Amino acid sequence: MDHRINAVESGTTWWMPQRGSPSPTIASDDPAPAGRRVLIAHDDAVVLDLLAEFIALEGHDVRCAADGTSALRAVGVRRPDVVVADAELSGLDGGTLARRLREWETPIVLLGARDDVPSPAGVIPLPKPVDVERLLTLVAATSRP
Fold first, then answer.
1. Helix ranges restricted to H, 78-131
2. Chain segment 76-88, per-residue pLDDT in tens
């Protein structure tokens, strides 16, 4: 069964598959989970918060940017393993951000990008409505070279 999460302010719908019992707590003598450094860039605060919550719950270190220009600055300060960005960001759109990230060889999951057309190297399109399970799988499997 799926849960529907509706970000009313943004008009965005997210589908999150219902999970079984919560994950067990990691004991203090267990090694920490290997998470990715993830930068999320989205200009809708509600969606940004949802994405950050979903990705952080998977054990990843999440940083956020409210627009494309801020995201580019954040990459220069602390290089992430992967960027998750909306294709229609304000300031610097997702496509332009992806082209600029090539010099850092940072992969980008581009939300709202069409997956039926060829994408530049390092760009992983994820059409809307966003499948959160697919997003989490991509974040876990994607990292810079």
1. 94-101
2. 899 999 999 999 9
